[in-house]
Amino acid sequence: MKTVLITGSSRGIGRAIARRLAGSYNLIINYNHSKDKALSLLDELREINPNVIAVKADVSKEEEVERLFSLGEKNFGTIDVLVNNAGISHFSLIQDTSSEDFERIVGSNLRSVFLTTKRALSPMISQKYGVIINISSIWGKEGAAMESLYSLTKGGINAFTKSLSKELSPSGIRVNAIAPGIVDTDMMRGDFNSEELVELKKDLPLGRFAKPSEVADLLAFLISDEASYITGNIADINGGFY
Ligand code: NAP
Hints:
Helices cover 49% and strands 15% of the residues. It has nine helices and seven strands. β2 (26-31), α2 and β3 (52-56) form a beta-alpha-beta unit. α3 packs parallel to α4 (99-127) and α4 (99-127) runs parallel beside α6.
């Protein structure tokens, strides 16, 4: 059975990905602050598959990333699939955004992706197989007012994905991103009030937000061998937003 590490899988999209994959892969789920949620997910998933572990790590920090991977490898050997899902949002005018905000957002959304990817690569290159999926956002392509810093990190993820796919194809490693529109999670509910959510839905041709499980279904396809010729792709899942 292949092994998948999902960063930020205590809640939201990461949690749905863990649920979607639990029947078919060894899983390393990761949390930072939401210990209770991660442990309840662990209990749930172990009913389906005993080969699931949960590891606390702030993936913006190199020493915690090292510990996350070491524990994963100790349990399951090589990590075949890396899902860079952990992320935080930030909503403010750029002139109200501090350097501390910059460090925090770039740390969780971008440095994390650099650190985990770098740590994952040597074993993947040795076995000439690996899959990396980066969870980006519609705003990484389109940009969003009041979310310039968040958009910056997601645009960075898109460029990183395309560049890495070229660098790593000769080593048998595929790298893709998923760019969701608006997904019904804590993040989305924290960013908008109920009136704004009604207005946002009106802009969506499908007339509703994505379910986290719908993003997980796309990811399950992209990491499978059925997607063996797909790399360097930023896969849109946005209900027709554009
Ligand atoms: P969410 O419900 O707020 O969950 C975020 C997850 O990321 C939590 O499990 C959180 O863990 C984890 N996390 C954040 N910073 C972390 C860190 N430094 N180290 C480890 N874990 C960390 O958000 P979501 O909506 O599921 O978002 C997941 C991903 O999808 C993000 O990259 C987000 O940018 C992207 N996305 C979301 C939407 C949307 O509309 N929801 C749209 C496009 C893209 P703890 O709670 O344990 O700290």
